[in-house]
Amino acid sequence: MQPEAATRFVPVAASEPPLEADPQLRARLGALIVEAVPAFYALLPLPSERIAQLQGDLLGVAGTEFESAAALLGDEPLALVTWLPTERLAGAQRSATVALMRHLDRAVVPKFLADAAGYGRGVEPVEGSGLYLSRVAVAPAGRGRGLGRAAVQQVIDAAAGSDVWLHVARDNDPAIALYHSLGFQFHSDAPFASRAMRRAGQTT
Known about the structure:
Structural class: alpha+beta
Low-confidence stretches: 1-6
Strand order of the largest sheet: 1-2-3-4-5-7-6
Shape: globular
Number of helices: 7
Helix content: 25-40%
């Protein structure tokens, strides 16, 4: 059964107050973005608050991994999910890396690039169409209420019968179980640290 609160997911563009008028809300949502993929953001030699601000500023921006987003908002954001067309994923990720580099001291850029390349080698390539679920995160105050399932359902609904793709850490058994229950299957048996999963579109 879906939680009653799931009906309160709203597109971030329609949030109250509007995101563009509330940098603190953007930063709090940015912190959820960071929490969704901590291994990547740990590579950045920047304060966590700055990283959250930078990522929150990209919410709803076309061409980014976060161009479409829905959030469950209360006194504090409880959950966030972001997505984009799968065909634009590689370009969005390259642009994100370049954008983050602009905020780094030149001396640390080579190490960041090397670390990011190493991280990327552990991520299974996505080959297909549809929507890519780029981030899903539930704040501690929202856990245990089915909000992760409700967040993923936002993207399934937005896909309107097309494929939905995502990545999951190979040792994240609770997330894998959730995705399996929603119809996702592993794309391959390859031993990537971050494995691709696909929910096949519904044929008519």
